[in-house]
Amino acid sequence: MYTDGGPDHRLTFFSVQLSLIALFLNLNLDLLVVGRTAPHHSWRNPVERIMSVINLGLQCVGMMRKEGSTDFEKTIKNANNLKAVRAAVKEKYSYEVSACLLPPQQLVNSITSRLTLKGEPFSLFDGASDEEMEAFFEVLHLVDSSVDISDTSKSALQRMPKMQAFSDHCCQLRHYSFCVKKCGSSDCNICKPLRMDSELYKKVHFLPDPVMGPDDHYKPFVDVYGTPTTEEGRPSLMQRKKAKTLTYSPSEQHAQNVGVVVQCDECDKWRLLFSKRKLSVKERAQLEEVIAEISYTCGATVDDLVLPDNLKSIGIRSHSCSDPIEKIYYSAYKDDLICIHCGSANSLTTPTSSDAFYPYCVNCSSLDRIHTRQ
């Protein structure tokens, strides 16, 4: 399987990993390999190539949902975010939402059914019902009866010892891939027996990681398939040669002089920009426009960002995606707390005094605490 890595297919999410394990078990597969494209490279995904055809079908088409009951419309209007909308719908209005969305769904189905790609018409299907999804995930209870689909956070895995054992035994998690594979042993009590020939299965391996060769190019797939590999060759984990480095020790004031941060497209962590002189309002607005248009990944230098000449005074530290958020961030942006490990602003455990830990989210609660005195 190959996806563009959106939130519903982000392989680093435990909820996505559980759904893939359920797929592996329901189909009784010997090997499941799932990959996702790097940020801004979804053009490499074959599925994305149909978007131009769909865009042709949706040219000049306007859609509006059907109006619901007075109570429904009032409840939706008063919901402050998508989470509140979902809670209200799940509690009382699930049927009404389906009825409201039926007209635009029928319109889209009518248009899409008339589209073709290389002479083949598009196929349409309905989304899975709640009952079908519950039945699909029921297979996970064969691995661990404590699996709770309502709690799919990373911390929940610690409360599922048998699922943890299955994950360690059968799964390989990488930043851009996730594999589930039977061990092939006839006396294994964790995974099922093989379906394919055992001798042939000996030639089947996990998807290898890219491995850098001596010429600074990645080795061919055939040279690394079946060999032990790690993620050391992933670009965002490699320290790039810096064309420009900070010539001074960055401080809180240097960060406030810029007042703008940049987010890594791979790890979603915020990285600080520094300057010895304070940017004007016009320069800061110009910088924000430049940042909005670029694709930044940890390890990139300011030279890689291609800033205008009047912003050449700005610097950035060299990072890898495994680095935590810079501690200066919490003094320069006191009112904007985020998890020091992943940069998330959700479900934070925040410091209550100067003698405390930097904030961390529930998904990173198993990681080492970073004390504010460190």
Question: What are the SSEs and their pairings?
Answer:
Layout: E1 2-3, H1 14-26, E2 31-36, H2 51-57, H3 70-78, H4 82-112, E3 116-117, E4 120-121, H5 130-137, H6 161-170, E5 171-173, E6 177-181, H7 198-201, H8 221-224, H9 252-258, E7 261-263, E8 270-274, H10 281-293, H11 302-305, E9 315-316, H12 328-332, E10 348-349, E11 360-361
Parallel strand pairs: 1-2
Antiparallel strand pairs: 2-6, 3-4, 5-6, 7-8, 8-9, 10-11
Overall description:
The protein is an alpha+beta fold and 374 residues long. The protein folds into two domains: 2-201, no CATH class; 252-336, no CATH class. It has twelve helices and eleven strands. It has helices at residues 14-26, 51-57, 70-78, 82-112, 130-137, 161-170, 198-201, 221-224, 252-258, 281-293, 302-305, 328-332, and strands at residues 2-3, 31-36, 116-117, 120-121, 171-173, 177-181, 261-263, 270-274, 315-316, 348-349, 360-361. It has a four-stranded mixed beta sheet. A three-stranded antiparallel beta sheet has the order 7-8-9. The longest helix is centred in the first third of the chain and has 31 residues, at 82-112. The two termini are 43 Å apart. The model has no long low-confidence stretch (mean pLDDT 85).
Across the major sheet, the strand order is 1-2-6-5
Task: Count up the domains.
Answer: 2
Structural class of the helix and strand makeup? alpha+beta
| Low-pLDDT windows of residues | none
Question: What's the order of the H and E elements?
Answer: EHEHHHEEHHEEHHHEEHHEHEE
Shape call: globular
Q: How many extended strands?
A: 11
Strand content: 5-15%
* Main beta sheet strand tally, sense and closure: 4 strands, mixed
Calculate Rg over CA atoms.
25 Å
Summed over residues and divided by their number, the pLDDT gives a mean of 85
